[in-house]
Amino acid sequence: MQTQQFDTLIIGFGKGGKTLANFLGNKGQKVSIVEQSKDMYGGTCINIACIPTKALALAAEHASSHHPNTHEEKQAYYESAIKEKQRLVTTLRQKNYDTLHNNPNVNVIDGLASFAAPTRYRSSSVIPRKCSRFRLKILSSIRAQSPMSPAYRVWKRVSVSTIARP
């Protein structure tokens, strides 16, 4: 089992988490960022909200301007739109991962994480880890169905940048 020491732990690889991890890493801080799904590198906007929605809306507008008539024509436009959306999302997700992975001061951890004490966390990452020590902890997003426990509210140096609503 591995033990790590770093300056900052960020839970969540969304816009706030990735930006802060890269910024602090570039300033020389040792940062670990934890994301539960490789399919969510970059956050909600890139993977399931803003970008995919706009890509599909643009594809629908394009298809509409060409007036497809048959089921086969419409199906071809649909399949093309889905492929292009997936290509775009995959490219952006990889770019976000590469930015942090290539920063020598940033460690990307795949798995679930939770704070175990004011300076310790637990992770269910692929590589088993003991609770690690750090100075600053940041939740870049929290699901509303998993509210913060009262313990989080009394710990110093816990920052919550967003709370996702269902």
Layout of SSEs?
Layout lengths: L7 E4 L3 H12 L4 E5 L8 H4 L2 H16 L5 H31 L4 E5 L2 E5 L2 E4 L8 E2 L2 E4 L10 H5 L3 E3 L6
Helix pairs in contact: 3-4
Features:
single chain, alpha/beta, 2 domains, three-stranded antiparallel sheet, 8 strands, disordered C terminus
Describe the structure.
- This protein is an alpha/beta fold.
- The chain has two domains: 8-43 and 97-160, FAD/NAD(P)-binding domain; 45-92.
- It contains five helices and eight strands.
- It has helices at 15-26, 44-47, 50-65, 71-101, 150-154; strands spanning 8-11, 31-35, 106-110, 113-117, 120-123, 132-133, 136-139, 158-160.
- The strands form two sheets. Strands 3-2-1-7-8 form a five-stranded parallel beta sheet, with helices on one face.
- Helix 3 (50-65) packs antiparallel against helix 4 (71-101).
- The protein is elongated, with a radius of gyration of 19 Å.
Mean pLDDT: 80
Please list the strands of the largest sheet in the order they lie side by side. 3-2-1-7-8
Count of individual domains: 2
Q: What is the number of helices?
A: 5
* CATH fold label of the largest domain: FAD/NAD(P)-binding domain
**What structural class do the secondary elements suggest?**
alpha/beta
Q: Briefly, what CATH class of the largest domain?
A: Alpha Beta
Q: Main sheet, how many strands, which sense, barrel?
A: 5 strands, parallel
Using only C-alpha atoms, the radius of gyration works out to 19 Å
* Helix-strand sequence: EHEHHHEEEEEHE
Helix content bin: 40-55%
N-to-C span: 35 Å
Q: What percent of residues are in strands? A: 15-25%
